[in-house]
Write a structure and sequence with these properties.
Blueprint (H helix, E strand, L loop, with lengths): L1 E5 L6 H11 L7 E5 L9 H9 L14 E4 L10 H10 L2 E4 L4 H11 L1 H4 L6 E5 L1 H4 L28 E3 L12 H8 L6 E4 L3 E6 L2 E6 L3 E4 L3 H7 L1
Parallel strand pairs: 1-5, 2-3, 2-4, 4-5, 6-7
Antiparallel strand pairs: 1-8, 7-10, 8-9
């Protein structure tokens, strides 16, 4: 599967171009499904509405001019026969996955069966904040809010690195580079701190940072690796 893992959606021309390159065709010719599920754990239903309706210009995803746009609500899928939703996902050109709580999103990706389906899809996976973080092996204790039944901070592990989004965001004083460095010290895999003008493009095993802002790659922490072994 091909990934475009963003901090805040398609926020600049470089990230937009990376998306079109992964799609292999223009956005107006591409069919999208949006996944608002991660937002539900925040207790702010208006955020899901803004995402779906393309009413959040700070994090553009659904408002890009797609040929068609549908909603895939993961919490509903276990009650629906697979024949009614799996073919729709298989035919989509792109999955747009909203931010919110990464562990809640991970839980429902697994419960719904989407996690098992993802590696076989032709669609481009575009994540926003938690929608990106969920692809990592772990998110780090700093980002654990909603706690899954199994505990821990493990996520899907479909890419070999972790992400610290919204670096140096003016509304998030706890997201400084110093905070990112403390977070990275607990990670057993490479870890990226990325701001809202940065995304990570993954295709055919190749990882590329696409940025008009600032970011930093931290190597795996030897201390974290030793404690995890």
């Amino acid at each position: 599967m091909r990934f475009l893992l963003t901090s805040a959606g398609i926020t600049n021309a470089s990230i937009h171009d990376a998306l079109v390159d992964l799609l292999g065709k223009p956005i107006p010719e591409s069919n999208a499904l949006c996944i608002p599920t991660a937002t539900h754990a925040l207790g702010q239903p208006e955020l899901a509405w803004r995402f779906i309706c393309g009413q959040e210009p700070r994090t553009p995803m659904c408002e890009l001019g797609w040929n068609s746009l549908g909603v895939l609500e993961l919490t509903a899928l276990p009650s629906i026969d697979e024949e009614h939703w799996v073919p729709v996902v298989q035919e989509a050109d792109v999955l747009l996955v909203n931010g919110g709580d990464p562990l809640y999103l991970c839980y429902w990706m697994r419960q719904s069966g989407l996690a098992d389906l993802l590696p076989s899809l032709r669609a481009v996976y575009v994540g926003l904040s938690a929608g990106s973080m969920v692809m990592a092996p772990n998110i780090g204790g700093e980002f654990v809010r909603w706690k899954p039944p199994t505990g821990g901070d493990e996520t899907l592990g479909m890419v070999g690195f972790s992400m610290f989004p919204h670096l140096d965001h003016e509304d998030l004083p706890e997201n400084t580079m110093a905070d990112a460095e403390k977070w990275a010290a607990g990670m057993q895999e490479p870890a990226y701190a990325i701001d809202d003008q940065t995304a990570i493009k993954v295709a055919d095993g190749s990882v590329e940072v696409v940025s008009e802002g600032h970011w930093k790659l931290f190597p795996p922490s030897p201390e974290a690796s030793e404690s995890g072994s």
